[in-house]
Design goal:
alpha/beta, 7-stranded mixed beta sheet, 263 residues, Metallo-beta-lactamase, Chain A
């Protein structure tokens, strides 16, 4: 399986630009999958530089309803005329950050005939499945960090019911893709026990020298208990990645825009 990073907070190539967001181009034996579309049309510009043909994508997945993962949906729908875009049905609901700034999607796109709404489990085909895990226990508690959603017209703490994960089972491996792991990276590892995990850990607000240090220490210990190889990006945070890397060694790598990996 080949994974090309089209958009990420950092860039590892001079001819590839960076933005706060994430977009991955996944090539399996049978499919070309776009996982997230970044914050803008930048992912498409980078795709040209990286030789990733977005018109050939046959499956697109949005991990959750935040602009930095779905800001490029409209651009993708223009470039690609065939691929369905799988989105949790709660993703187009309002979402706000701690400053109560709208960080959601363009709701006008929700009516597109290309959008396929998913629930807790959605099998795209054998070996390619989406999971929201909303009925599963969250053993490891997470902090919404001030993010809000709207329930029955009332502003509430974000519960991230709109977040979903892509599991691809191929060549005897379970490869899991998670955009931001808002439901907790440790919960996600417990739920899936993947061989490879690709995505953000949402640790960027944790202070590596303050209260967040103990959280990161615990996360590193717990992640090492699983057999997975981890490729992280985006909302993990660069300082937080460096902290984890010291403890996890070769089990953890950072991927930025322009990187191409084989798993």
């Amino acid at each position: 399986m080949k994974i090309t990073v089209l958009s990420e907070n950092t860039s590892h190539r001079e001819d590839v630009c960076a933005e706060h967001g994430l977009s991955l181009y996944i090539e399996t034996k049978e499919r070309k999958i776009l996982f997230d579309m970044g914050a803008s049309s930048l992912f498409a510009h980078n795709a040209e530089k990286l030789g990733a043909d977005l018109s050939a994508v046959d499956t697109a997945v949005l991990s959750h309803g935040h602009y930095d993962h779905g800001g490029g949906i409209a651009e993708f729908l223009k470039i690609n005329e065939k691929a369905p875009v799988y989105i949790n049905r709660r993703a187009f609901e309002p979402h706000y950050n701690a400053a109560q700034k709208d960080i959601g999607l363009d709701v006008r796109l929700s009516g597109s005939e290309r959008i396929v709404f998913t629930d807790d489990v959605f099998e795209i085909e054998k070996g390619i499945t989406l999971f929201s895990c909303n009925e599963r226990e969250r053993k490891y508690k997470t902090d919404p960090a001030g993010q809000k959603c709207v329930k029955n017209g009332v502003l509430c703490d974000e519960d991230f019911l709109h977040e979903q994960y892509l599991l691809i089972e191929e060549g005897g491996k379970r490869v899991l893709f998670s955009g931001c792991s808002h439901k907790g990276i440790l919960n996600i590892c417990k739920w899936f026990s993947p061989d490879v995990l690709v995505g953000g850990f949402h640790f960027m607000k944790l202070d590596t020298q303050g209260d967040g240090r103990a959280v990161l220490e615990h996360a590193a210990r717990e992640l090492l208990l699983h057999p997975a190889k981890y490729y992280t990006a985006h909302c993990t945070g660069e300082a937080q990645f460096a902290f984890l890397k010291e403890r996890m060694g070769e089990r953890l790598e950072y991927i930025g825009a322009g990187d191409i990996i084989e798993v």
